[in-house]
Design a protein that fits this description.
mainly beta; 1 helix; Jelly Rolls; five-stranded antiparallel beta sheet; single chain
Length: 135
Amino acid sequence: MSLNQLEWIDLPRFEDARGILTSLDVVPFEVRNAFFLHSVLSERGGHAHRRTGQLIVPVAGSFRVHASDGCDSADYALLDSCRALHVPPMHWLRLHDFTASAVCLVLSDSPHDDADYLRDWDEFVALRRAERTAR
């Protein structure tokens, strides 16, 4: 699973004189968990998920997502509440540079499971290396 598997998902937006409605009906998986981050003073993440895919939505404000597949890395600016980042499993993420008003909604395809987390960078890289060697 390389970084080219991360993809932007444009969320349908309906705007009129009353305001803007953004739909989540294009989420590419069945949502099994949802949570949001706010009032973040430094950064969040610093881990990967073995089996869980996520859709990261900047509901308000903005922030950045640094993603790595163990070899390559990229930085994504989440600035638009109608544009979400889809992240498959086995990508190390670090969310940072939150504006004061930022709210980050995360939808995932699995319920929370502590065993799904990889919190050690070296272990993550070793697992990714083993995956590439097995192919």
